[in-house]
Amino acid sequence: MLTGIHHVGVAVADLDEAIELYRSALGAKLVHRARSETDGLVAAFIHTGTGEIELLSATSPDSPVGKFLAKRGPGLHHLAYAVTDIAKALEDARAAGLDLLDTKPRMGMHGSLIAFVHPKSLGGVLTEFVET
Ligand code: CMX
User: What does the pLDDT read at residue 110?
Assistant: First the structure.
């Protein structure tokens, strides 16, 4: 069902500071910025060779990332897997007893269909499927 790791989400307090840190300390390249009203966040997509990091900053304290930052502070937020057929991935995940946060795929900031699985279903790791 999975074809690879699509990206790793990292929650940050200040997006511009985080972009600059990844650029100056790691030589990582900013490729895209986006805003999600649905998830109350602004994001920066950073390329690190073949991998991608999604830096996430909250636009509201009540958003998922805002609550995460208040409770846990900055750090690893989610792991996203690439899947070729997200409807099938959700069907399989549901059949395996995972708690789906999105019962139907929705449009994500990459312009691809996405869906989240609750962290409590996968050992404390918030998990995202991205259709590629
Ligand atoms: N990773 C691991 N655990 C997390 C978590 C995360 N990212 N976010 C919350 N939790 C844990 C909390 O620590 C808490 O654990 P305890 O019950 O042990 O204290 C529990 O989940 C509930 O946390 P909460 O603060 O009460 O938050 P909610 O239940 O309101 O929401 C969640 C939690 C996962 C359902 C919500 O954050 C969500 O729907 N996330 C999916 C959407 C999202 O995160 N969007 C941002 C990324 C968008 C993108 O990349 O496109």
Answer: 84
